[in-house]
Design goal:
The complex is a heterodimer.
Chain A lengths: L1 E10 L2 E11 L4 E5 L6 H7 L8 E6 L2 E2 L5 H8 L1 E4 L11 H13 L3 H15 L14 H13 L5 E5 L7 H16 L4 E4 L3 H7 L2 E6 L2 E6 L1 H6 L4 H11 L2
Helix pairs in contact in A: 3-4, 3-5, 4-5, 5-6
Chain B lengths: L1 H4 L2 H34 L3 H16 L2 H14 L6 H27 L2 H9 L4 H31 L11 H11 L4 H29 L4
Helix pairs in contact in B: 2-3, 2-5, 2-8, 3-5, 4-5, 5-7, 6-7, 7-9, 8-9
Classes of the chains: A alpha/beta, B mainly alpha.
Keywords (chain B): Amino-acid transport, Cell membrane, Membrane, Transmembrane, Transmembrane helix, Transport
GO biological process, one term (chain B): amino acid transport
GO molecular function (chain B): transmembrane transporter activity
């Protein structure tokens, strides 16, 4: 579904992505973890070209990522994205946030888009807030609306860029539960997160990044109980101690 | 109060002229200011340079100097639309620099994540501007724009010096004829300006309410 080959990226002097070879099969749930500054968010953002790459190729659903323009917009419509800071459209209601993409990008009729949006909001548990503006919702509710907004486009793959990092602890669970439901439903997902519990429960594979490289890839069970690299052992030692 | 009862037609004409100055120079400022702001946020370096140059020149020159140039200087080189339009030209181009900066601050005030989210659901650049970025930028632009137009309203009084019979010009005439009622006249004319400014503030807050996000 997603294939990255020989990808390199620099931010000025800083080599943020090094020799990235990475594939995700349809229906697979891949969790990307690693210390901050390891390039995991950047990796996630290159897949729908919110970040450009300097070398290598990225394919989504067998098609090479196009340069800016109409084709790129079409590809992005098929790739759902959930941001750390939600990024709901601040001047639109919850319902409009979910219907805007289908109506403006897919050309779906307003009534059909609204019907679907209500179903999706129901599914993520925020249907009661449909008429409110994003600022009136809690962080957890906003993030679930953001998931519904992405789902409304019927994406082939969903990218989650640290979806729970900006949330209060008691709201993390409601968002993770929504994501676990999605994973069980067979959605292809790439999830950048610090939530090891989610990785254990829902991931088919864990990818560990450090200093712009993919250092280790394994099943969650193997990775957490028997990490191979020193870098991964050190990282897990730090985060699992508490 | 005979200054008022005997002269209210002329006073109203004066404020009419004030509003005409405000309308002509305000419209010019809006058009030129928007173009300059677009130039300043455009991806083309030359346009950005031109926009920055415009703002530097017109924002940093005293309005009175610009009016003097437009009044005495421009006709010398054959640009003479009559003194009313030439003075409006000075006020409009001066105010455009402030309009441009207000609009630019509005653009910059919309979080980058809003445009990213729009692109991420597949909106092309034009759609993300039209549906997501611009509506939010307009809302942020309203308060600084109100300040700019309130300043312009008061700046129109400079035209009195150049023989345009607007409100302040009328006030000076009344001072001569009714020297004993100066305070009343001054307060009365000030009230007229306050009313115009109050309307601008009211329109601004109506827009703000309409585009509220919380």
């Amino acid at each position: 579904m997603v294939a990255m080959r020989g990808v390199q990226k620099w931010f000025g002097e800083l080599h943020v992505l090094r020799d990235i070879d990475f594939e995700v099969a349809p229906g697979e749930v891949v969790v990307v973890i690693g210390p901050s500054g390891s390039g995991k968010s950047t990796l996630c953002r290159t897949i729908n070209r919110l970040e450009t790459i300097d070398e290598g190729t990225i394919e989504v659903d067998g098609k090479k990522l196009p340069a800016e323009g109409k084709q790129l917009a079409e590809l992005r419509a098929d790739v759902g994205m959930v941001f750390q800071s939600f990024n709901l459209f601040a001047h639109k209601t919850v319902l409009e946030n979910v219907t805007l993409g289908p109506i403006k990008v897919r050309g779906v009729k307003k009534a059909d888009a609204e019907k679907r949006a209500h179903e999706l909001l129901e599914r993520v548990g925020v249907e009661a807030q449909a008429g409110k503006l994003p600022a009136q919702l809690s962080g957890g509710q906003q993030q679930r609306v953001a998931i519904a907004r992405a789902l409304a486009m019927d994406p082939k793959v969903m990218l989650f860029d640290e979806p729970t990092s900006a949330l209060d602890p008691e709201m993390i669970k409601e968002v993770l539960d929504t994501m676990i439901d999605l994973a069980k439903g067979g959605m292809t997902m790439i999830v950048v997160t610090h939530e090891m519990g989610f990785a254990r429960t829902a991931a088919d594979r864990v990818v560990f990044m450090s200093d712009g490289r993919i250092v280790e890839e394994n099943t969650p069970e193997e990775f957490f109980t028997n990490p191979q690299s020193d870098r991964a052992k050190d990282f897990l030692g730090k985060i699992l101690k508490h | 109060m005979d200054w008022l009862t005997d002269n209210y037609v002329n006073i109203l004409r004066g404020f009419g002229e004030t509003l005409r100055l405000l309308g002509v120079s305000g419209a010019l400022a809006l058009v030129v200011g928007t173009l300059v702001a677009l130039a300043r946020v455009s991806p083309v370096p030359i346009l950005r340079g031109v926009g920055a140059f415009y703002v530097t020149i017109f924002r940093n020159t005293p309005l009175l100097v610009l009016i003097l140039i437009a009044y005495y200087g421009l006709p010398e080189i054959g640009i003479d639309f009559g003194f009313f339009i030439n003075i409006s030209l000075a006020m409009g181009t001066y105010t455009a620099a402030f309009v441009a900066e207000a609009i630019r601050s509005g653009f910059n005030g919309v979080p980058l994540g809003q445009a990213e989210a729009a692109r991420a659901i597949g909106m092309p650049f034009t759609q993300s501007m039209r549906h997501i970025v611009l509506p939010q930028a307009f809302r942020l632009v309203v308060p600084p724009m109100a300040s700019v137009y309130i300043a312009l309203t008061k700046n129109t009084s400079l035209a009195a010096t150049f023989g345009i019979a607007e409100a302040t010009f009328r006030m000076r005439g009344l001072f001569n004829d009714y020297a004993s009622q100066m305070i009343q006249i001054f307060l009365g004319i000030s009230l007229g300006y306050i009313l115009i400014v109050a309307v601008i503030s009211w329109v601004a807050s109506a827009f703000e309410r309409r585009w509220a996000v919380a």
